[in-house]
Amino acid sequence: LRAQSTYADSDQRMVLFMRIGELEETLLDRPVEAIDAWAELLNADGASRPALNALERLYERQEQWIDLSDILRRKSEVADSGEERIALLAKLAAVQEHRVEDSTEAIMTYQQILAEEPANAQALDALDALFVREERWNDLADVLRTKLTLPTAEHNDELASCSSFASPLRSVIGMHIASATPASVAWTPDFSTKYHSAMPRMA
Questions:
Q1: For 143-201, what is each residue's pLDDT tens digit?
Q2: Distance separating alpha carbons of residues 185 and 179, to the nearest angstrom
Q3: Nearest in space to 95 (alpha carbons), one of 129, 136, 144, 60
Q4: Of 30, 87, 127, 139, which is least surrounded by CB within 10 A?
Q5: CA 20/CA 2 separation, integer angstroms
Q6: 55 pLDDT above the threshold of 90
């Protein structure tokens, strides 16, 4: 099949690379060779769904996380619907955060999700945790404000269950946000234990 692909026209080459990829993956169990074949197909047709799906599957199997991130990004760019694109971006962000361990890229991807779906609970929760870990207090305050405006009770119950307003976040905002005004912190409810443990200790 590889020899045939050398002399075939472009359409025939794509069909042959698809057959080679399927053969290498399923019958010969040679994922590296399968990746090479599917990558050749993707080079010929950058929007090939069979190639994108196969490479996603193979990169995940081989734990090639950076390559998987690239494929998920490309799939999101050719998604047929907003729902499909959001799901792909969510998977991409999770890979960036937990596999590639690139918090900056993960944050950017979660923010892209929120740009399309501002009330996306998964993205808000992920950014909440990431901003606490990265000590990005300005950004954390914005995420918490967004959670408080959600029509569902899930996030509001978490944030509004505490009655004290003398919270760790209020202290942090006072120390770390030079431009903060009383109005910008007056809304802040007390933090749960997970926030309190992540905040700097106050004298």
A1: 999 999 987 645 555 555 543 333 445 444 555 544 444 443 333 444 444 444 454 44
A2: 11
A3: 60
A4: 30
A5: 8
A6: yes
Torsions phi, psi for 9 (to 5 deg): -75, 180
Residues in the chain: 203
Contact between 139 and 126 (Cβ < 8 Å):
no
pTM for this entry? 0.75
Q: Read off the amino acid at residue 126.
A: A
Q: Which amino acid is at 32?
A: V
First to last CA, the chain: 72
Residue matched to tokens 């040679």:
30
Q: How far apart are CA 56 and CA 91, in angstroms?
A: 11
* Cα gap 89→95, rounded to integer Å: 10
Q: What is the rounded CA–CA span in Å between residue 78 and residue 109?
A: 16
